[in-house]
User: Which sequence fits this backbone?
């Protein structure tokens, strides 16, 4: 567990430095805001509408697919580390074939459902 | 190659037990050292990139601030820090303020597991030249990359601008897609090294193995880049996609999205933090490429003939040199390739990189099993044949579909040509007939355009 302590130290340094930079920035920078300055920039023309545009639902579907494959990777990593050790060889190989087969079904399903196609 | 490396004095490789035993002040020195290194790296990395890409485009690049324009980034940074910061009226104030921090801090954290060198003596303490190492070190980098995605999405969402929202969503979908392919390309490395800890992966690349083929012994090279070239190629593509770099810099497609998720961050300190995080991410994926595929801090061949090459603080220099080379590759790609379309980007990630990767993992694992498990040779051979056959069948299927699609497209174009040839107005556009007599020959008086 003590191996994680330096990670936490670096995290603390990171937060401290960025918080400090933002604080110093707040003290040093000029502030002369006008209503015109405070409008949303968008593309330079006066903004129209609410601000949040509707967007495609498929971004959401892609994050779902990501979860499937991220879990897949998390299972693959420990498998890869023990694979070469004595007493694992054959069985682990077959098991991984089955597992990857099931995962591959997932991507084939998404493919057939045309999730991966952009129109 | 193996014999050459064996010549060099055996370096002092750290093991996992060597980590977590540093006194607290050594840890703090190392952490501050990494921070300073990355900050300076970004300052001069930006300068180096601008200078190199200018030369590739026959320009001079920055050459006003300081000698050779070296202080250009410092000047830009000072300007950004002292400039008026605008909080647009409609933004979600808390998230708008926090998201640069959410992006920047994990970017720095990922560097804590990068090995810079072997065991060294630092102020009288023997310690590895690496902040820390974990049994799941590479997984930590992937996890931190995922946290960075939150910063991107929240920055886009909190800005309350359609372009920023779209840029944030695009960027998130792209980064998570390429992260999967990236994680899968690591699996072959773990199969060979048998560990996820970065320092042990470096050690696994110190000596090559031997392959017996037709009764002869061949020594395999020690760096994984040669042994695992398919994984490496996929990783190179993914690291460009993961860091939103050209040719995958869709989140910042100026023509369609203005500035992407950071459109509403006028060039203030917060914008500088986004840029900082982007460069640190580039350094992280470069460092990972070096650690996993290019032998980490170990000296390359001609230098490794020298006995002291892999001892003391020297490996730090080799590591930095390798970093400069990988970073130059990023710049070279940026100078050479155009941006690709978003649907092509996602299709390439999901339909090409991920299936290819899965197939390669199976193939490589079967080869490994063949070498480890001598007893079950026939069974493994059967599985190998099965994998190869399956890959072939899948490829055939793709080929057939692609050919059919191509033929359909050609037929469609030909039909359209014929239709337009017969009836030019059929397309719905007011097209004059192709044989309309409108040229009256040279006898008529020519009317110059200048008088009208």
Assistant:
């Amino acid at each position: 567990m003590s191996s994680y302590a330096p990670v936490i130290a670096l995290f603390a340094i990171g937060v401290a430095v960025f918080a400090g930079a933002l604080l110093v920035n707040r003290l040093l920078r000029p502030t002369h805001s006008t209503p015109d300055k405070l409008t949303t920039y968008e593309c330079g023309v006066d903004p129209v509408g609410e601000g949040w545009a509707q967007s495609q639902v498929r971004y959401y579907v892609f994050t779902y697919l990501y979860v499937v494959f991220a879990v897949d990777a998390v299972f693959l990593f420990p498998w890869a580390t023990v694979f070469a050790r004595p007493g694992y060889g054959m069985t682990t190989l077959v098991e991984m074939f089955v597992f990857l087969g099931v995962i591959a079904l997932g991507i084939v399903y998404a493919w057939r459902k045309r999730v991966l196609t952009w129109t | 190659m193996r014999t050459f490396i064996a010549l060099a004095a055996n370096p002092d490789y750290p093991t996992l037990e060597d980590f977590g035993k540093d006194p607290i002040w050594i840890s703090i020195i190392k952490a501050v050292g990494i921070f300073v290194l990355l900050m300076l790296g970004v300052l001069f990395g930006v300068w180096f990139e601008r200078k190199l890409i200018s030369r590739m485009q026959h320009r001079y690049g920055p050459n006003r601030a300081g000698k050779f324009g070296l202080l250009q980034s410092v000047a830009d940074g000072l300007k950004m820090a002292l400039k008026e910061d605008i909080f647009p009226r409609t933004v979600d104030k808390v998230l708008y303020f926090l998201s640069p921090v959410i992006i920047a801090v994990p970017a720095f954290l990922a560097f804590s597991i990068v090995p810079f060198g072997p065991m060294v003596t630092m102020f009288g303490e023997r310690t590895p030249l690496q902040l820390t190492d974990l049994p799941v070190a590479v997984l930590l980098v992937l996890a931190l990359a995922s946290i960075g995605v939150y910063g991107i999405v929240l920055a886009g969402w909190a800005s309350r601008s359609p372009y920023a929202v779209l840029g944030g969503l695009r960027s998130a979908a792209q980064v998570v897609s390429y992260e999967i392919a990236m994680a899968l390309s690591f699996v072959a490395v773990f199969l060979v090294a048998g560990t996820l800890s970065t320092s042990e992966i470096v050690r696994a690349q110190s000596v090559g193995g031997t392959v017996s083929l037709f009764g002869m012994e061949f020594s395999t090279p020690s760096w994984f880049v040669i042994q695992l070239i398919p994984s490496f190629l996929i990783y190179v593509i993914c690291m460009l996609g993961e860091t939103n770099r050209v040719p995958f810099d869709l989140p910042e497609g100026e023509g369609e999205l203005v500035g992407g998720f950071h459109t509403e961050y006028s060039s203030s300190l917060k914008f500088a933090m986004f840029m900082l995080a982007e460069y640190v991410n580039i350094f992280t994926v470069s460092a990972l490429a070096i650690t996993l595929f290019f032998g980490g801090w170990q000296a390359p061949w001609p230098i490794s003939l020298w006995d002291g090459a892999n001892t003391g603080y020297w490996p730090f220099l080799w590591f930095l040199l390798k970093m400069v080379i990988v970073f130059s590759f990023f710049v070279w790609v940026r100078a050479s390739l155009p941006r690709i379309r978003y649907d092509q980007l996602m299709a390439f990630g999901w339909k090409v990189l991920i299936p290819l990767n899965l197939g390669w993992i199976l193939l490589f694992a079967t080869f490994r099993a063949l070498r480890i498990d001598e007893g079950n040779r026939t069974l493994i051979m059967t599985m190998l044949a099965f994998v190869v056959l399956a890959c072939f069948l899948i490829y055939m299927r793709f080929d057939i579909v692609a050919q059919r699609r191509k033929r359909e497209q050609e037929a469609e174009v030909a039909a359209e040509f014929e239709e337009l040839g017969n009836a030019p107005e059929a397309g719905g556009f007011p097209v004059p007939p192709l044989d309309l007599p409108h040229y009256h020959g040279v006898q008529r008086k020519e009317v110059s355009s200048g008088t009208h």
